[in-house]
Each structure stands twice: as structure tokens, then as C-alpha cells.
Design brief:
Elements (H helix, E strand, L loop, with lengths): L20 E5 L8 H10 L3 E6 L2 E2 L5 E2 L3 H11 L2 E6 L15 H4 L15 H28 L6 E6 L9 H12 L8 H6 L1 H24 L1 H9 L3 E8 L3 E5 L2 E5 L7 H16 L4 E5 L21 H7 L4 H11 L8 H13 L1 H4 L13 H16 L8 H23 L4 E3 L2 H11 L3
Parallel strand pairs: 1-2, 1-6, 2-5, 6-7, 7-10, 10-11
Antiparallel strand pairs: 3-4, 8-9
The chain binds nicotinamide-adenine-dinucleotide.
Length: 439
């Protein structure tokens, strides 16, 4: 998207009710964004259906969940899971008898990876094999889901898939340096993107994070046609990331976590939704604020933009409940450390030249630099140390608030059919949270 299309009102449209079906396309983790949407679906009395990405057996073959895993996952979801493995990406796929990309890269080392070359014809054959496996499974899964959806129902498909970092030992060390390294351990994200290894990883991100939305939309075409013809409807949502407006200098300003290598895939995801919308399919990518989850914890510093949400809660007319959030955050800090001191640190970080240079929407996603890694990772570590307990951070609390706010915005926003790409910035998240907690 070349234009920031922000949601500026709280959607109120109610479409989904008991008898309607919520389909989760991805797995549910405790801190994951989709919990916000699932809470809304449950509250509306919808039937919930899920999928699994599957697990790898001892020979790395993809398998469904065993009875115990399935029972646990269904209990957590509160709904039936179609037990056909839907792992996306092609890092472990290959035509019969050929090496998969993970095997092709098994020999790379921290010394050699920038020079190591891949055979792109072979990689393309692996990609095709992975796509075929995924789309064949999607067809089976959708045929099962079809049976669970009554005529005339409204169906909410929630796409949450993102990822695709291959499990190559040397790469895990490289990733640690790119996302967490500073000083001598700093590694350039541009060096990664210019290498064959990096190009492969971007292709895999595209498959997992973006193309799966397209496969979901195609695989559910028959369901969509049937429910629409019988008086129901279908909506699709996906979680994007493309920076967020937060309060800096008293104004809502766009900023981003850098470096977000997945950004290219997230822009592709936006294009998938826009193309679907142009065909009359209501798919909306909601570009969501930075929060800490199982998936984002690797990006040290991604949590820094969360703190000014506290200011937004007050700015958006927050009262007693907003103050309680300040108090709860204050209580997590070491005795003698003031929350305001921490907010001042964030404010001066956002205003320093090094980080301000990255507030360039048109140039997104930019490469990392040693100077940025130094201030961002340094501040992240400094702030963590200001807490009483490293396992109970202010950003845990604020992350759960953001996903609570994003849930209804997406649930009712999808119902309202606003557009294919919408940013949820701190203003609207704060307004929604204050509305959910009137004094
Ligand atoms: N955490 C953030 O700061 C943030 C910000 C904006 C958008 N998002 C997006 O929100 C969505 C949910 O992420 P989250 O941060 O809540 O974390 P999460 O770990 O809870 O969710 C990640 C999802 O990706 C799925 N997944 C991972 N690898 C997969 C693969 N190979 N094939 C198929 N599915 C796979 C998982 O099953 C899970 O549903 C993602 O699209 C993410 O990019 C996250």
C-alpha cells in the first residue's frame, strides 16, 4: 500500500450471531492476536472451527495431531479442529527423491552463508511441491468445514498465519544476530537479503504469510458461493503489519519496528486482499500494532512502541479504567522507578535522530543499521531491567490490552465492509478500549 488507510471510527455493525461459523486459519497460541477475535466470536455465540498446521515426526514427515494433542487443541479453541496438517511454506518440501531446501542448506556455516549459492530451478520445484501439498490439504479441509456450515450462515474466516523461518542451524545463529545483535554481534539485514539464503527466506515468508490468504480464499469459494446464494455471507480477515501511528511529541505519528524482513510478505498480503476485494470478496487485512507474542519475541525492541499506548488511553478521554492501567503498569516496576521516567525515555528515543530516520513510510521496510540496533536494543534491555520481574513486563500487560481492543474493531469492521487494508493505530485501539471499559 502506498497510502496509509487508517480506521478512524469504531465500527458497530453486527452481523454474526448464533448459528454462524468462525473459521480460524492458523493455530491458537495463548498470547496470539487472534484471541481478541475469538473472544468476540464466542460472545456472539458463533460455532468455532479450526485447523492445525500439523507436527513433524522423527523423520520430519508432516503428520496430523495425535489424539491427545487434538483434544488439547480443541479444548483451547472451544471448537472442532479439522485434523489435516496445513503447514505452509516449502522449506521441507521437494519433488519425490529430491533434496528439500532445508537439506540443500544444511551445510552452510556462519562463515560461508553469504557466498553459498542455491540452484533456483530446484528451489522452484520445491516451492511448487509445497504449494501443491498445501492447496491439496486446503481442499480437503474446506470440504470438511463445508459440512459444518448451514445454508444461509454468515462465515468469518480469520487468517492468522505468518512465519517461514527455516530450521537451519546456522540461520538461527544469523537471525539472532540480525534481530538481537548489537556492537560486535550486529549483523546487517541487507547482507541477508542480498544472499541466496535471504532470497529463499523471503520466498518462504511470501508463501506462509501472504499466499496462504489467497489459497484460503480460493479453497473456500464453494462455501462462499453457497452461503451467499442462501442468504448468508462470507468475510475474511488477516493480520498485517506495516508500522503504527503512536503518540510521539503529542501527535499520532507513524513509526515502525526496523528491520522487519517480513515486511515484503506483509505488503504482498495487502495486495492479496485488495485483489480479492476488487473481485467482490470481502477480505480485509488489518495492520495491527506491535505486541509481544510467541512469534514476535525474537524481535528485540518491537515492544518499544507499546508504551505510549498509556498516553493514548488518556488522550482518548480515558477515565478511571485508564488510570487503573497506569497503576497496574507502575506496580510492575522496581520500587523507586517511576512510570513517567520510562515514558520519557521512550519519548526521547523516538525523537532522537537515529530512530526518527526510520519513520519513512515510503521506504518501508528499511534495513537495520548498527546505530539503530545500539539504541533500540539498548533501550529495550534498559527498560526490562527497570521491572521487578522479567517475566511480568509492562509490555505483557499492554499487549493483552491491544489484542482486546483489536478484536472488536476487526470483528465489527469486517462486518461493515470498509476496505481491503486498514491500519489499527493507537488512537482507535485506545478509543475502543475506553469504550469497552466505561467508568
Ligand atoms: N505480534 C505482533 O506484533 C504483530 C503485529 C502485527 C501483526 N501481527 C500478525 O498477527 C498474526 C498472528 O501473529 P501473533 O503475533 O499473534 O503470533 P502467534 O504466534 O500467536 O501466531 C502465529 C500464527 O502463524 C501460524 N503459523 C506459523 N508458522 C506457520 C506455518 N509454517 N504454516 C502455517 N501457519 C503458520 C501459527 O499457527 C499461528 O496461528 C500474524 O499474521 C502476525 O504477523 C503480529
Amino acid at each position: 500500500m502506498s497510502e496509509l488507510t487508517s480506521l478512524r471510527h469504531i465500527p458497530k455493525t453486527n452481523l454474526f450471531k448464533k448459528g454462524d461459523v468462525f473459521v480460524l486459519f492458523g493455530e491458537l497460541f495463548g498470547r496470539g492476536y487472534v484471541n481478541g477475535l475469538i473472544d468476540e466470536a464466542r460472545a456472539a455465540g458463533m460455532t468455532i472451527v479450526g485447523i492445525t498446521v500439523g507436527r513433524r515426526d522423527e523423520n520430519n514427515a508432516l503428520r496430523g495431531l495425535n489424539a491427545e494433542e487434538l483434544a488439547e487443541a480443541e479444548e483451547k479453541l472451544g471448537g472442532k479442529i479439522i485434523n489435516v496438517p496445513m503447514m505452509a511454506g516449502f522449506d521441507m518440501d521437494a519433488p519425490a527423491g529430491e533434496q528439500n531446501p532445508t537439506e540443500m542448506l544444511s551445510g552452510i556455516t556462519l562463515k560461508s552463508w553469504q557466498e553459498d549459492k542455491l540452484d533456483w530451478a530446484k528451489i522452484e520445484a520445491c516451492r511448487a511441491a509445497g504449494v501443491k501439498r498445501f492447496t491439496d490439504s486446503a481442499a480437503i479441509v474446506m470440504a470438511e468445514i463445508d459440512k459444518l456450515i448451514p445454508d444461509g450462515a454468515n462465515v468469518f474466516f480469520a487468517h492468522t498465519m505468518a512465519g517461514g523461518i527455516p530450521k537451519i542451524k546456522a540461520f538461527l545463529a544469523i537471525a539472532n544476530r540480525i534481530y538481537k545483535g548489537r556492537g560486535e554481534r550486529f549483523m546487517s539485514s541487507r547482507a541477508l537479503l542480498d544472499s541466496d539464503l535471504g532470497k529463499l527466506i523471503l520466498m518462504n515468508f511470501d508463501e506462509v504469510t501472504a499466499n496462504t490468504l489467497g489459497y484460503l480464499i480460493s479453497a473456500s469459494a464453494a462455501i462462499r458461493a453457497r452461503v451467499t446464494a442462501t442468504g448468508g455471507s462470507a468475510r475474511y480477515t488477516a493480520y498485517g503489519y506495516h508500522g503504527t501511528e503512536i503518540l510521539i511529541d503529542g501527535k499520532y505519528q507513524w513509526q515502525t519496528y526496523t528491520n522487519y524482513t517480513q515486511g515484503y510478505a506483509k505488503m504482498r498480503l495487502e495486495s492479496v486482499a485488495s485483489a480479492a476485494w476488487a473481485q467482490g470478496v470481502y477480505a480485509t487485512v488489518f495492520n495491527c500494532p506491535e505486541i509481544r507474542t510467541n512469534s514476535s519475541d525474537i524481535f528485540v525492541g518491537v515492544e518499544l512502541p507499546l508504551f505510549p499506548l498509556l498516553n493514548a488511553l488518556k488522550r482518548e478521554n480515558g477515565g478511571k479504567w485508564a488510570q487503573q492501567q497506569w497503576d497496574a503498569c507502575q506496580a510492575l516496576l522496581e520500587d523507586g522507578v517511576q512510570l513517567q521516567t520510562l515514558l520519557d525515555l521512550i519519548e526521547s528515543y523516538n525523537n532522537n535522530d537515529t530512530s526518527a530516520a526510520f519513520r519513512n513510510f515510503g521506504a518501508w521496510p528499511m534495513d537495520n543499521t548498527p546505530a539503530l540496533a545500539d539504541v533500540m536494543i539498548g533501550l529495550s534491555e534498559e527498560i526490562t531491567k527497570m521491572h521487578k520481574d522479567k517475566k511480568a513486563l509492562i509490555t505483557d500487560h499492554l499487549s493483552s490490552l491491544v489484542l482486546e481492543g483489536a478484536g472488536p474493531l476487526m470483528f465489527h469492521g469486517a462486518a461493515e465492509q470498509i476496505g481491503p487494508v486498514l491500519w489499527l493505530n493507537h488512537d482507535i485501539i485506545a478509543r475502543q478500549l475506553n469504550a469497552l471499559h466505561p467508568d
